[in-house]
Design goal:
674 residues; mainly alpha; 38 helices
Length: 674
């Protein structure tokens, strides 16, 4: 019974004939059904077996493990009347391979150790499986203890054990020990252990040593060896070397496979290298691997990351709409460019949604500043998913709270993180600090900042920006000095916070010092925001001449931010002449922005030049659509939006009746004081 068809025919004929199948035949059929994903048929056959042996139990448990249904696998494991070492090892391997079952694996390993059955003794498969768990958890102490146990019991005498030890030490950051294990292997070194050592070299960034080992006994190399080396160069940013090895792989008689192409496509996506991605796409077509779901989704991802959504969509449709990997890439692509209608359509088409698509949709809504959609999506997440949202989802929720200055939802999110016990990393800490700062509660931001044990540049930048926004300029400078004492190198964002603090205080000399130190001390190139801050600093300090001189030496093209800062300086000094010089350039850059016309009109009004103010107002009427004033109020878990002159709210009558009542009361109170 080599094929599923043969198995089904045999099974049907046996049932029709009333023939009771031997246990061996039933076990083979269960294995065949599970191999082809027919778990229901496998379970039904198992339930109808009049007699079962340990192999029957092992086969059905393995079937559920392969289908990633560990709950049912464990339920069968617990009721199995007969268990041998294979039963325990299968369950242990299932736990180690899945995410979130590490504690179960450790408990089961302890059960194997303490088992009183002579047939259940730890063997090579058990310890190598636990070595994989140690590598997964990056727990060197566990791995080292297992290594000692292997030496003591003689379970370290095979190439498979050797490769597992090398892999464990390498992934736990102990490259020296990994190399010692390899060197001490002697005659045990085979292709698998050699590939493990090449992977360890690549992981450590020792690409020359990896290449040297690769070419030792080249007759041992297989496709895995080539793919490992190509992947190593790709991970460390060597695209040219990866492509050279890719070509050499074929020249040495090895066929490219899905792993080869997915590695290269992943690299092209990361670098957003459209040209290289198209070349790999061409090779995929020539080698007939375009129907492979991993390869085709990799090509879709390249086009999405490079902003070629038309190509990505054609590739996605050609590869088949049921490819969940391809759909995921399309959702991420549409979300990143703000096309949330298409992103949402594809999102709704997925029967099962992973964390990547949830995060992409949250991020897309936040990027398009649709905070209400972020909160609504969070509600959908609670309803549809049984899992805890990951850090990236919560970061987007906190970002929406910050954008809308919604303190209550921000506090609720913070409370949820504390209740559930989600581990806070640097990114989540920085999002929390930023949220409280932008919601007006700088004291909370400061408390969270103080709780962070290991602070990086991002966390310092967020806290400094918060202090600058709230007018605590001295704290900005203090944090900067603390940052330098901690050995943390400032970046361009750091200097935006510093220059913002200087302009609020009118500290021209200090601002110039920080600005000059960017290039002189830290080799950082100033960006638009830094130039705009300096112009605003000069304007607020009554040094318009310096602002003009500074404008003339800016090496970048003057954009709306720079011109807007310069116009603000002109307004502060009531210098309509300079403002008029900048007027044409600003309106050419942002002619559809109504706030720029208002800014110009205010400058002329401050000078008492009503004719020019009238001209600007007239131009504005013809070119700019004025948006109605809008405000919102959070009540419970909903956000109520109110637009000037609009009475479409479902409770508008009651709202305006209450407003009229409050207005009358205010008038009565006002009369009492007259």
């Amino acid at each position: 019974m080599r094929s599923l068809r043969d198995g089904l025919i045999f099974h049907v004929q046996a049932i029709k004939a009333g023939f009771t199948q031997p246990i061996l035949t039933s076990n083979q059929l269960i294995h065949l059904y599970s191999k082809h994903g027919r778990i229901r048929e496998a379970q039904k056959l198992f339930d109808n077996m009049p007699e079962r042996n340990v192999f029957s139990w092992n086969t059905i448990i393995s079937a559920y493990i392969k289908s990633q249904n560990l709950t049912w696998a464990r339920a069968l494991f617990d009721v199995a009347p007969r268990k041998d070492l294979v039963t325990f090892n299968s369950m242990l391997s299932g736990y180690v391979s899945a995410d979130g079952y590490e504690t179960h694996a450790l408990e089961l390993f302890y059960d194997i150790q303490t088992a009183h059955d002579d047939k259940i003794k730890i063997d090579e498969f058990t310890v190598t499986t636990m070595l994989n768990l140690s590598a997964k958890l990056t727990r060197l102490s566990y791995g080292a203890l297992l290594h000692c146990f292997m030496v003591k019991t003689g379970n370290d005498k095979t190439g498979f054990a050797l490769s597992s030890l090398i892999d464990m030490y390498s992934k736990c950051g102990s490259f020296k020990e990994a190399f010692q294990v390899y060197k001490g292997g002697g005659g045990l070194v085979d292709l698998v252990s050699k590939n493990a050592m090449v992977a360890a070299f690549c992981r450590e960034g020792e690409m020359e040593m990896a290449l040297e080992l690769f070419w030792e006994e080249p007759e041992l190399n297989d496709a895995v060896s080539w793919n490992t080396l190509i992947s190593g160069y790709q991970q460390h940013g060597y695209l040219e070397e990866s492509l050279k090895l890719f070509v050499m792989m074929r020249e040495h008689g090895f066929r490219w496979n899905e792993h080869t192409f997915t590695t290269l496509l992943s690299f092209c996506s990361t670098l957003k290298n459209l040209r290289a991605g198209k070349e790999v796409h061409g090779w995929v077509l020539k080698n007939g691997l375009i129907s492979n779901p991993f390869v085709s989704s990799g090509i879709v991802d390249v086009y999405c990351k490079c902003g070629k959504m038309k190509y990505a969509n054609l590739m996605h449709l050609g590869a088949g709409r049921n490819n969940s990997f391809s759909v995921t890439s399309m959702i991420v692509g549409y979300s990143s460019e703000g096309n949330m209608i298409e992103a949402r359509r594809l999102f709704d088409s997925l029967a099962e949604k992973n964390s990547v698509v949830w995060t992409a949709l949250f991020s897309g809504y936040l990027k398009s500043q649709n905070c209400l959609a972020v909160f609504q999506l969070l509600g959908e997440f609670w309803e549809d998913e049984a899992t805890i949202p990951d850090g990236l989802v919560l970061m987007n929720v906190l970002g929406a709270c910050a954008l809308q200055a919604a303190l209550d939802p921000g506090k609720q999110t913070h409370g949820y993180i504390l209740r559930v016990g989600i581990e806070m990393d640097e990114k989540l800490f920085s999002a929390m600090i930023d949220m409280y700062s932008k919601c007006g509660n700088i004291a909370y931001s400061e408390k969270i900042f103080q709780k962070v044990d290991v602070k990086d540049a991002v966390i310092y930048n967020v806290m400094m920006a918060g202090y600058a926004h709230h007018g605590h300029e001295s704290m900005v400078f203090q944090l900067f000095e603390e940052m330098l004492l901690q050995g943390i190198r400032p970046d361009t964002v750091t200097f935006v916070a510093l220059l913002s603090a200087c302009r609020h205080c009118g500290l021209v000399e200090l601002g110039e010092k920080y600005f000059n130190s960017m290039t002189e001390s830290y080799k950082l190139s100033p960006e638009i925001d830094h130039y705009a801050c300096m112009i605003d600093l000069y304007g607020r300090a009554n040094q318009l001449e310096k602002a003009v001189e500074f404008m003339n030496v800016i090496p970048l093209e003057h954009d709306a931010a720079i011109m807007g800062a310069f116009l603000n300086a002109c307004r502060l000094h009531k210098n309509a002449e300079l403002a008029k010089e900048a007027e044409q350039k600003l309106l050419r850059i942002e002619g559809d922005n109504g706030s720029r016309y208002v800014q110009l009109a205010n400058i002329y009004a401050a000078e008492g030049n009503w004719a020019e103010m009238g001209r600007i107002r007239k131009e504005m009427r013809g070119k700019v659509k004025k948006f109605a004033g809008c405000s919102w109020v959070s009540v419970g878990n909903g956000v109520n939006t109110f637009i000037s002159g609009d009475r479409s709210h479902s409770k508008a009558q009651a709202i305006y009746a209450t407003l009229d009542c409050l207005t009358r009361e205010l008038h009565e109170i006002g009369k009492a004081f007259l």
